[in-house]
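1st attempt posting a full record on here, be nice pls
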Amino acid sequence: MGTTNDMRCDSEGNLYVTRYGKGTIAVLSPAGQLQEEIPLQGKNPTNIAFGGPEGRTAFVTVGDRGCIEAFRTRHPGRSWILLHPDLHDD
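the predicted structure (as tokens):
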């Protein structure tokens, strides 16, 4: 099942939730509905942050592997938009 460890929002209000013990990132809509579950190579994701040149790369620390995994998202992270308003064109 996994437990929640960290979460971040994208610019559209979708919530990306780390599922510690399950090895996935759950993506919830602003209404709270599960949109997708993104599998990771490790089982214990601990933190998630958005970055990259467009803010559309999610970086996830994975405790049991001692590494960072990354994947692309449709929308930039909310905090990335707040820090880079001049680069956002959506």
